[in-house]
Amino acid sequence: MTYTLAIGDRTYSSWSLRGWLLFAAFDIPFTERRAQMLTPGFAEMLKDFGLAKTVPALLVDDTYAVTDSLAIVETLAELEPDAGHYPSDPADRAMARNLVSEMHSGFTALRGACPMNVAHAWAGFVPDEAVLADLARLETLWAAARAPGRDGPWLFGQYTAADAFFAPVAARIAGYGLPVGADAMAYVDAHLAHGPFRRWRAMGIAQNRVMERYVLPFDQAPWPGPARLPAEAVTGMTPINATCPYSGDPVREDSLARINGTVIGYCNPFCRDKSVADPEAWPQTMALLAP
User: Fold this and answer.
1) Chain segment 121-160, per-residue pLDDT in tens
2) Choosing a second label site near 66 at 20 to 30 A (CA), which of 15, 75, 203, 256?
3) Is the link from the previous residue into 56 a cis peptide, with omega within 30 of 0?
4) Residues 6+ away with beta carbon under 8 Å from 100
């Protein structure tokens, strides 16, 4: 079985993040197609994905397209039954599907007032009553799913599709400083520390695309996730490695980074920049820093 996933801009596209996590967080190999939203290239990319007009969109075995995130998760649960998209317990599985469906169709006030932006946080946003009502509903759902006795930080203990669907909401709560209780904030923090989420965000920072429609009239603030290891792009230095930790290709002179004092080489500037954005998101880079 082969999968090709179409996504938009990592910094802003919350639905793309959901679709991408359904693969990356469940260790399902896939090929990624990406285009900048609101450009001719975006529509051109989607021509290969059946009737798709939005992202994410999925092509299965180069044969048929799945053109909505809810359809994608149900298709993957069918085709990859051992991946763990839904809990094994029937009652938990039903609740997880309920949560995925409500996230898919609801929380319009929160989504409208707080567009996702994982590049940085915003300071000074004041939620209105509709946004506060959405937050209260989220806390009710999360508390119901995170029943006593579950192991792990996720809604059903182990990471499921429900967590993937709520990841962009966690980014909004963190990025806008929205008021939630301690238990809900612990769940948000679990998303911010989640390896696949951190890799998604780091790649968005490396791509460095700014869309004016997402620039809001607030002051920018530092991202509230885990602190980044000291890292910067450098030139004219000798790296400790001869091949890129991701591709195995030879290191290039224009793709060097100093991370926590160690100079590491990469095969292209993007590999360097995604590593500089968040070194600890990348096990391949961290392996080179290990004692």
Assistant:
1) 999 999 999 999 999 999 999 999 998 778 889 999 999 9
2) 203
3) yes
4) 70, 73, 161, 162, 165
Spatial separation of the C-alpha atoms in residues 260 and 254, rounded to whole Å:
19
User: Helix, strand or coil for residue 171?
Assistant: helix
- What pLDDT score was predicted for residue 286? 97
- Which residue in the block uniquely carries the two structure tokens 């009652």? 91
**279-289: pLDDT as tens digits:** 999 999 999 99
Tens of pLDDT, residue by residue over 215-266, are 999 999 999 999 999 999 999 999 999 999 999 999 999 999 999 999 999 9
Report the alpha-carbon angle 210-213-219, nearest 5: 75
Secondary structure letter of residue 176 according to DSSP:
H
Residue 281 CA to residue 122 CA, distance in Å, equals 23
**Topology given in CATH for the domain delimited by 90-198:** Glutathione S-transferase Yfyf (Class Pi); Chain A, domain 2 (1.20.1050)
**Which H helix or E strand runs over 92?**
helix 90-105
Contact 229, 259 (CB under 8 A): yes
Given the candidates 3.40.30.10, 3.40.830.10, 3.30.43.10, 3.40.50.300, the CATH classification of the domain at 3-79 is 3.40.30.10
Mean pLDDT across the chain, nearest whole number? Answer: 96
Distance between CA 28 and CA 220 in Å, rounded? 35
- In the chain, % of residues over pLDDT 70: 100
* Closest to 279 (Cα-Cα) out of 236, 228, 233: 228
